[in-house]
Design goal:
4 strands, 150 residues, alpha+beta, elongated, four-stranded antiparallel beta sheet
Length: 150
Amino acid sequence: MSRRLLHAFIAAATLLPALTAAATESAETAKKEIGLGLPPVADSLTGDLLRMLWGLSIVIALLLAVSWLVRRKFALPGAGGTSAITVVEMRPLTGRKALALVEVEGRRVLLGIAEQQITSLATFEPATSFAETLRSREAELTQPAEEEAQ
């Protein structure tokens, strides 16, 4: 049975080019008889370029429409910059831990974020900078150590 199948594949492979040529020749003859001897516009370089630009413009228009819909439908509250809470900066640490500097009503809060909890590490008043707060915090931590030493 496998020998018959092999002979059928060989016969089909030898006849395929002849069948393709005959089909192409009959299509050319039919075009000439009907009066379609001119090549279609899509076969020319200009036609291909116009078709490509048309498709590209449709894709760009669809992308713009989808992005507009997504922004309108899924906009976060306060995304326009009028939010009372703003994440100023996020710094990833190890694993799923991070530091976040958040501004709430003009005050900045440094948060430590872990998998199971969020801890407020420091609060910065509007007039103080991070460096000033760091210096005052170091002074607070070194004062009890000096008092214990005495």
